[in-house]
Amino acid sequence: MQLALAIDVGRAFLLREAQELQDTETAIGRSPMQEYVSAIEKMAVDDAGRKVAARHGLHVADAIDPHLIPPGPFWTKRWPALKELMSPQYSGTIRPPKAALEKRS
Length: 105
Hints:
mainly alpha
């Protein structure tokens, strides 16, 4: 129950942090949000993160809202692996930005 709440709190924290960013901070390439995404990803892939996902169906990576990352390399390079760390129910709700899909073609 604590982990489920922590995942929700983590997602709310990321949203608040993203709202405080200036457009210029996200327009120059790597979004400052990616540092948070990397930290959460690290927790999701460590032994405890994998065990809790397998045993209880709680995926630490569900704390990440990838829509907070603007179109760019994140969506083509990191998103495919990151969504594998999320629950199928949550990752199924994520739609890459149209611009990211166009770059794949």
